[in-house]
Amino acid sequence: MGLRDELLKSIWHAFTALDVDKSGKVSKSQLKVLSHNLCTVMKIPHDPVALEEHFKDDDEGPVSNQGYMPYLNKFILDKVTGNFDRQDFNKMCWTLCSRKNLDLCQLFISNEEAFKIWCIFNFLSEDRYPLIIVTEEIEYFLRKLTEAMGGSWVEERFEDYKLQLHSKQQRLSAWELISLVGSGHFSKGMDRQALSMGISEVYQELILDVLKQGYMMKKGHKRKNWTERWFVLKPNSISYYVGEDQAEKKGDILLDGNCSVEPLQDKEGKKCLFLIKSSHKSFEISASDKKKKQEWIHAIHNCVSLLRQDRPAPHREARQKRREMRLKQQAEQEELELRMRELQTSNEVKQLELENMRKALDEAAANAAEEERRRLQTQTELQDRYRVELDREKMVRQQMEEQVAQKSTELEQYLQRVRELEDMYRQLEDALEDERRARQDEEAVRRLQARLLEEEAMKRAELEQVHLRQQRAISETEAEKQELEKERLAKESALQAAMKQLEQLEEERKEALEQYQMVSKKLEDAANNTKTWKHKVAEHEGLLRLIQPGSKGQQLITNWGPAAFSEAELNLRMKKWQEMKNHSSQT
């Protein structure tokens, strides 16, 4: 059901309320007010001249519903963009129709709760006018309401109520549904607060598309502190508020097909953690216990799956399936009725043929009786004539006896024909008996088909359960795979850091080797110069002795020979290398 159909239902209630004499017509002045209010709440530019132009040929008298529909579609519904508050729109239509149709004196609900039931009625009602809700949707709503109140569903009580509906029309209007819930017939043993909370919970799920809500802890993005928020999950977003009353909204987490949710290990003193990754940010959430954590993860994962498959919310999809099932059953019922009518027509034709055959038998029997009467009359006349003319007709006795024999033969033929007609009558009765048995066989086949349909539905439910278990197993395997990928990336980054440190050490080793070679060369040159000067001094001043430098202490030895640096320089280089290693590991 699209946005236009949902809006038309509420508008229909408002238009019907303005139709005081129930003639299907409303005055143009009232329609002007209604159109102006609709444009205001739906944020559409209102054109007051358009209504006058639309009905300029009928300046006087009321305007019918059919005449208002083209104007409503062209100047209002075609301009709707969906950026208005649906609740304000529904309340405006509710205000117009509730004053005329609702009396809360004998009910246990408030006007706000009656408004929520009215919205639920519009959601579950059939897409035909006048709006009604069928028995199946009534049971669905009452079951939801009973579960929300924490009560147990009493099947016998609803079956009794269904029998009362069957005696009427098997359907309810919006005001009859409000009276049914408000009278407390299906909430006996519950207080008014439980009934109010149950109505609100069903309203939030069916009308506001709230799939799950509750308190959880959220980690901030700037201060990194944990704050308790009231979270509300809808098919395409998660909103979080300061409190349960939803007075102050703190932010939204927009969901799409690229979002994901995964559990986290306990840290920072917080337990039952999970991470929501959206297209722009990631949110760390802490649930109150493991059960709530799994419920939220499962609910968010289902929302993302529905968005990826471009499917509506579960309750809207379930409503569509129920309607399709009703249409299918209605088509099957119509087909069955058509077949029954055909069978009935065929039976009537056969009965007409049997009736014609009975009439033919009756006529044959009447003709035979007439022939018999005539024969008896003729025989009597002959006997009388014989007695009178016996003396005169002795000569012709033989001829008369032959005539009597001939008449007896004709009588036997007539009797044989009557017996044949009786045999035909018995055959017709056997044919009727065969038809009755065929009808019984057809009824047995119909019951067998119904049982097969029930078994098919049970098997379908089992397959859906298996599918759900497979989906859960796939989601768990995906979470483990992501954790292993994180560990692999961490090890690769550590390996790269170690390789960088090894390359730095190799460069420092090469620089130290070059410095050692330069120092060795300098020492060799200095030694050669010293030997030259010592030789010269020995030649000129033999008594003089050069002063040698003192001992340098123990010289450091490396893998490549004597070290070109002191132990203090070595300690300084080791300290710098350790600082570089600590810095790379922290990075």
From TrEMBL:
InterPro entries: EF-hand-dom_pair (IPR011992), EF-hand_SWAP70_N (IPR057836), EF_hand_dom (IPR002048), PH-like_dom_sf (IPR011993), PH_domain (IPR001849), PH_SWAP70 (IPR057837). Signal peptide: none annotated. One of its GO terms (cellular component) is nucleus. It is found in: Cell membrane; Cell projection, Lamellipodium; Cytoplasm; Nucleus. PROSITE patterns: EF_HAND_2, PH_DOMAIN. Residues 315-529 form a coiled coil. Residues 209-305 form the PH domain. Residues 6-41 form the EF-hand domain. Phosphatidylinositol 3,4,5-trisphosphate-dependent guanine nucleotide exchange factor (GEF) which, independently of RAS, transduces signals from tyrosine kinase receptors to RAC. It also mediates signaling of membrane ruffling. Regulates the actin cytoskeleton as an effector or adapter protein in response to agonist stimulated phosphatidylinositol (3,4)-bisphosphate production and cell protrusion. This is Switch-associated protein 70. The lineage of its organism: Eukaryota, Metazoa, Chordata, Craniata, Vertebrata.
